[in-house]
Design brief:
Layout (H helix, E strand, L loop, with lengths): L8 H8 L4 H7 L4 H7 L3 H10 L17 E2 L5 E2 L11 H18 L4 E4 L9 E4 L5 H8 L14 E4 L3 E8 L4 E10 L2 E10 L13 E4 L2 E4 L19 E4 H11 L1
Antiparallel strand pairs: 1-2, 3-4, 5-6, 6-7, 7-8, 9-10, 10-11
Length: 253
């Protein structure tokens, strides 16, 4: 009689890679023999990581120990330490991802908020449970960029190193670009802001700009069809190096 216990490691791994998440987890609970075989199946744990989208978080792939950090509510956030010899690479990522979800559910996380102000008026703040929003509002209202005419939703794009927000209005004659630098979405630091209205008086449509490496790539207005919002071939694509953008902005200020 053929049972899961009699299957080879390769067969169990092949079966597990074709299952949905809940069924795959139940497979590890069939018996102790099946579980021991699955522990060494790298493809099986990689399959679970892809389903849970743990592969989209580079921090889960790092084996380097991090410094002790405090969470939103002031608790200590301890890193998940796993034995490399006993756990396979993708199983370590899976276990870290599960612990990450548990921390979020328990409220154990770090929380930053970005503000469209300038460098002197708190453009980024790590929020804690004892943060008073009234104090933040007092600081932000002193910024010349916080006006009633600017209270509108902006566009944004990001990669692993930069976060860019763009806010503008033709009637108010401004198109402001804000740049933060971060590490995989953590520890954001405000770099600069600059008004590029003279370059883009009609603003920037959400599908006309994106970040590539260290560049902010901007398509000209003619590159987007106003009827179907499709990007069409054209010349004159501009690439703004974010490092130079920062330098020029500092010189101008």
């Amino acid at each position: 009689m053929i049972t899961f216990d009699n299957l080879t490691v390769d067969c169990i791994e092949c079966v597990g890679c074709h299952l949905d998440y809940r069924t795959a987890i139940n497979l590890t609970l069939v018996s102790k023999t099946v579980r021991e075989k699955l522990l060494i199946c790298g493809r099986f744990w990689k399959h679970l990581c892809k389903i849970q989208e743990f592969t989209e978080h580079p921090v889960l792939k790092s084996d380097q120990a991090e410094d002790l950090q405090t969470t939103y509510d002031g608790q200590n956030l301890h890193p998940v330490v796993l034995d490399k010899e006993e756990q396979s690479y993708w199983r370590r990522i899976f276990l870290r991802g599960i612990e990450m979800k548990r921390n979020i559910h328990r409220g154990k996380y770090r929380y930053w908020r970005l503000y469209l102000t300038d460098k002197d008026h708190l453009p980024v703040k790590e929020l804690k449970c004892d943060t008073v929003q009234r104090d933040l509002k007092k600081i932000h209202t002193r910024s010349p960029k916080v006006e009633r005419s600017r209270r509108r939703r902006g566009e944004r794009c990001w990669n692993d190193e930069y976060f860019v927000a763009i806010q503008g209005r033709c009637s108010s004659r401004y198109t402001e670009v804000f740049v933060w630098k971060w590490f995989h979405g953590r520890n954001p630091q405000f770099l600069c802001s600059k008004d590029v209205y003279h370059m883009y008086p009609y603003g920037l449509f959400p599908t006309t700009f994106f970040i590539w490496s260290n560049y902010l790539v901007v398509l000209p207005r003619q590159a987007v069809s106003e009827t179907s919002h499709r990007i069409v071939p054209t010349r004159g694509i501009q690439c703004i190096l974010l490092a130079k953008f920062l330098t020029r902005s500092n010189r101008g200020s």
